[in-house]
Design brief:
Layout lengths: L1 H14 L12 E3 L5 E3 H10 L7 E3 L6 E3 L4 E2 L1 H12 L22 E3 L4 E3 L1 H4 L9 E3 H110 L2 H5 L2 H10 L21 H14 L40 E4 L6 E3 L8 E4 L6 E4 L1 H22 L12 E3 L5 E3 H5 L11 E3 L6 E3 L4 E2 L1 H12 L4 H6 L12 E3 L4 E3 L1 H5 L8 E3 H108 L4 H16 L12 H10 L21 H14 L17 E3 L5 E4 L12 E2 L8 E7 L6 E7 L27 E7 L3 E6 L7 E5 L7 E7 L4 E6 L5 E6 L8 E6 L7 E3 L5
Antiparallel strand pairs: 1-2, 1-5, 3-4, 6-7, 6-8, 9-10, 9-12, 11-12, 13-14, 13-17, 15-16, 18-19, 18-20, 21-22, 22-33, 23-32, 24-29, 24-33, 25-26, 25-32, 26-27, 27-28, 29-30, 30-31
Helix pairs in contact: 5-14, 5-15, 7-14, 14-16, 15-16
């Protein structure tokens, strides 16, 4: 009974022992999970095992979370612990059980199978028959040795845990030190990308401004030329109206020159006025570019960016040059019938045509060297006629070109033309620029109102001309021949001029058809009227063209403004994409930082808990090493007993004293998972400048996109063509084994630049390029795909400039070689082309292949191609049944 009582007291001692300090509970506090600890022990543990916000910690036994404020004192356990202290034998020594509970014999043996102390009667009982039993002292020594081994191993594990903890702290510091530089680097890289966009935007705007300036200059020159032609038409119409309303002599006088001017006058219309922008800006698909770049990063491929060139604008149209028909000059009058000298063209001296009268004057009248001997009376009449004509011509010279009246307060321009002060200051129609800058109504030279100057000499001449009033007699003198002073009553049809009767007899009009003026005046009036009507229409058309040009200029400015706004909008969208991409990269970096630091924190907490447990195990083993043999084996017995009866509420990793011995034997340090000191994926900025360069190259050649289809007339039986002739697929024909898969395009080229695209996204094999028939090529090739020289035909020597795909990922180009087989070049593709662009420059003798999928990267370029005849696009679907599709322009 005493032995049983002692065993019960030992069990109770286990229940009121603190799992942390392994002593009887002092001021015990209980957790919600049911476990109890000394107040001092659990408070200190809360500081070390804190795992979250608001003072959350974990129970040292079952790891259940608790908060320090939720601990509650356990008075019953405190009372039991106090009562138990009173029956302890010796200060701080545990209870000793020395008698068998069943036989009341001294416990001196130890059963290894049952792990318990027994007496000699127990050894002979049925329960322990056949078991290995040892003396208590012998087995205690073995346990002590095991304790020492476990103690040594646990201390090594503790050192390893401390090292790992130091490594984790170092990694966490390293990570925190990496984050800020990486964040700054990402921001710097994106600022550089924005700078590239800013430069590209400025380049586009500058290019647009240059195109605007050239277009406005062309329109301005065209408008000035039309204004000049319009003014010349006004003068010509005014002259014709004056002749039609004047006398017969005025109508027929110099009618030849007037008729020739009016008949040969043609309004020169401006050509090739810029009405639309040559090449509107096309924004690249930056999202797709960055997506492709990220794909290249993930696959570890090299980002091939051969280089992207600037948008090259087309040649500017030539400036318009307008010229009006020259006005025929009046021929010099000379009378061969009058006596005088005549120059012999074969001699160097003049020859008299008749004897000279002594004292008479002579005067040369023409390039033929005709000298006229002047009669005094004729000289007087001729002088009067010449004076009259001079005054009439002078009156025309001092007439304002705007109001067609004599000049009033004449102002002169730097170009030499003069106008009435009121006319030139009100000339708003010719204003062409800011600051009052205008153009001369006659010659179109620019002037400003501040540069006009008063022409006093011209004003004096105008006043003198105004004083001359032609009397009826003087008016009649206008009907006199300037050469002979006779009345002008005849009309020479060949020279188309009014003449007198003496002119008719002169050599100048010898053999000409001469009519009375009254007979031809109607015909001349009709011709002049017809010319006048035509010129009025031309003038109206000139005015309309001028109005159209002004409208075109306004439209042009509106187009430019709208294009500028569109460029700003497009680049703002590109910047927005970069902003989103930057935020995505920064967020990705933040997430990686948070996850890594969280993993490091969890690993550190796990190591802290393991380290704490190691300390407790080491402390327990050190404490046990001081126990006696009886105490060691009693502890082993209690551990065995409780394991058989299934201790509830304790985990396998619990730290109850009765199980620490077993744990120390099997304890292994659980190392945290490996966490790198460096970032998994550092941000790499794409070569945006190179991408834009390639995109501009592609955009530049796409201006020459032709609407291509497959040619159905050279189609083989093994090829299937869609109804719109845009999709081609190969089909097997059994039992035929070899086929010809080649087909030409519907167009052929002998000059110029041409571009087309083919969708090959579903194909695993194809051949694409151009073909030019060679006159010297008489080789015959076997059909099919399964023989060694299947590709021997595809070489420039035979007229093929092609690129191929085979086996899904092998890309090649074929060049000439010294052998019968072509030189096969292996092409590397960072991104497999789902769409291929082909550009032919016939004059430059080049064929270029572009990977449209990879924003226009160059696949391959054939240079120095010898095109002896027309060039055909060449397509070969090979033996892959998936279709290839010709893309319509700008699709």
């Amino acid at each position: 009974m005493a032995a049983m009582t002692s065993a019960v007291l030992v069990d109770i001692q286990d229940e009121v022992t603190c799992p942390i300090c392994l002593e009887l509970l002092k001021e015990p506090l209980s957790i919600d999970c049911g476990h109890s600890f000394c107040q001092a022990c659990i408070t200190e543990n809360s500081k070390e095992s804190q795992i979250g916000q608001e003072g959350e910690s974990s129970c040292p036994v079952c790891q259940t979370s608790y908060q320090l404020r939720n601990l509650r004192p356990n008075r019953h356990l405190a009372n039991i612990a106090e009562r138990l202290r009173e029956v302890v034998l010796g200060s701080g020594e545990p209870l000793k059980v020395i008698l068998c509970a069943h036989h009341r014999e001294k416990l001196q043996l130890f059963c290894k199978e049952d792990g318990k102390l027994i007496c000699w009667l127990c050894e002979r009982s049925q329960d322990h028959r056949g078991h290995h039993t040892f003396l208590m002292e012998e087995i205690a020594q073995e346990y002590q040795e095991k304790f020492q081994e476990s103690l040594k191993r646990l201390r090594q594990e503790q050192q390893e845990a401390e090292k790992l903890k130091a490594v984790i702290i170092e990694k966490r510091t390293s990570w925190k030190n990496q984050m800020e530089p990486e964040r700054h680097r990402i921001q710097t890289e994106f600022n550089q990308l924005r700078s590239i966009l800013d430069k590209e935007e400025q380049r586009q705007l500058k290019k647009l401004e240059e195109e605007e300036r050239k277009g406005l200059n062309i329109m301005e020159e065209a408008e000035d030329e039309l204004a000049h032609q319009s003014q010349a038409l006004k003068e010509l119409i005014s002259d014709l109206e004056r002749r039609c309303q004047g006398s017969t002599v005025e109508l027929l006088q110099d009618v030849s020159a007037v008729t020739e001017r009016s008949e040969y006058w043609a309004l020169k219309k401006p050509e090739d006025l810029p009405t639309k922008l040559k090449s509107a800006f096309r924004a690249p698909d930056l999202k797709k570019m960055l997506r492709v770049f990220r794909g290249l990063e993930c696959t570890g491929g090299d980002n091939e960016h051969p280089s992207l060139s600037n948008y090259s604008s087309r040649d500017s149209p030539e400036n318009f040059t307008f010229t009006s028909q020259p006005v025929p000059q009046e021929e010099l009058l000379h009378a061969d019938s009058a006596p005088g000298w005549k120059m012999n063209p074969d001699q160097n001296c003049p020859v008299f045509s008749s004897p000279l009268t002594p004292g008479a004057k002579t005067s040369p009248l023409g390039p033929e060297g005709i000298f006229k001997q002047e009669d005094p009376q004729e000289e007087t009449r001729g002088a009067a006629a010449m004076a009259l004509k001079f005054l009439v011509n002078m009156k025309e010279k001092v007439t304002c070109a705007i109001c067609l009246k004599l000049l009033t307060e004449p102002l002169s321009l730097n170009c030499g033309h003069s106008f009435c002060q009121a006319c030139i200051t009100d000339n708003k129609a010719s204003e062409i620029g800011p600051g009052g800058e205008s153009s001369c109504p006659v010659c179109g030279v620019r002037y400003s109102l501040g540069n006009l100057w008063l022409n006093q000499h011209l004003a004096n001449i105008v006043e003198r001309v105004k004083e001359v009033k032609l009397s009826p007699e003087e008016g009649q003198k206008k009907d006199l021949c300037l050469s002979h002073g006779e009345r002008l009553r005849l009309f020479c049809k060949e020279d188309r001029k009014a003449i007198c009767q003496l002119c008719e007899w002169s050599r100048e009009h010898c053999g000409h058809q001469i009519f009375l003026m009254e007979e031809v005046v109607k015909e001349c009036q009709e011709k002049l009227q017809a010319s006048l009507d035509r010129l009025r229409k031309e003038h109206q058309e000139a005015e309309k063209l001028g109005s159209d040009i002004r409208e075109e200029r306004t439209s042009w400015k509106n187009q430019i403004q709208a294009e500028k706004q569109r460029i700003h909008t497009e680049f703002n969208q590109l910047r927005s994409i970069l902003d989103s991409e930057e935020q995505r990269e920064l967020q990705k970096l933040e997430e990686e930082e948070t996850k890594t630091l969280q993993d490091l924190a969890e690993a550190e907490n796990e190591l802290v808990q393991q380290s704490q447990l190691l300390k407790e195990l080491i402390s327990d083993l050190e404490h046990r090493s001081e126990w006696s043999a009886m105490e060691l084996l009693q502890a082993s017995q209690r551990s065995r007993f409780k394991c058989i009866n299934g201790m509830k509420g304790e985990k396998e990793s619990g730290i109850r004293r009765t199980k620490r011995y077993k744990m120390s034997e099997v304890w292994t340090l659980k190392k945290p998972k490996t966490i790198s000191k460096k970032l998994k994926h550092g941000f790499h900025a794409p070569d945006l400048s190179g991408m834009l360069h390639m995109f501009k190259e592609l955009t530049n050649v796409q201006r020459y996109w032709v609407d291509m289809t497959f040619n159905p007339f050279n189609l083989n039986l093994n090829l299937n063509l869609s109804e719109d002739h845009r999709q081609l697929a190969s089909v097997p024909i059994w039992p035929i084994k070899y086929y010809n898969y080649g087909v030409l395009g519907s167009q052929y080229f002998s000059s110029g630049k041409h571009y087309w695209e083919i969708d090959v996204s579903k194909k695993t094999a194809w051949i694409l390029g151009v073909y030019c028939r060679k006159r010297s090529c008489n080789k015959k090739f076997r059909r099919g795909t399964n023989y060694p020289n299947a590709y021997s035909r595809f070489r420039p020597e035979n007229g093929y400039w092609v690129v191929r795909l085979q086996n899904e990922s092998e890309y090649n180009a074929f060049e000439d070689s010294s052998t019968s087989d072509p030189k096969v070049l292996t092409l590397s593709m960072a991104v497999p082309p789902r769409r291929v662009g082909i550009f032919l420059d016939y004059e430059a003798s080049t064929v270029s292949f572009f990977n449209v999928t990879n924003h226009g990267s160059l696949i391959y370029k054939f240079s120095k191609c010898h095109f002896s005849q027309v060039v055909y696009p060449y397509f070969n679907p090979w033996n892959c049944p998936a279709p290839m599709t010709l893309c319509p322009p700008s699709s």
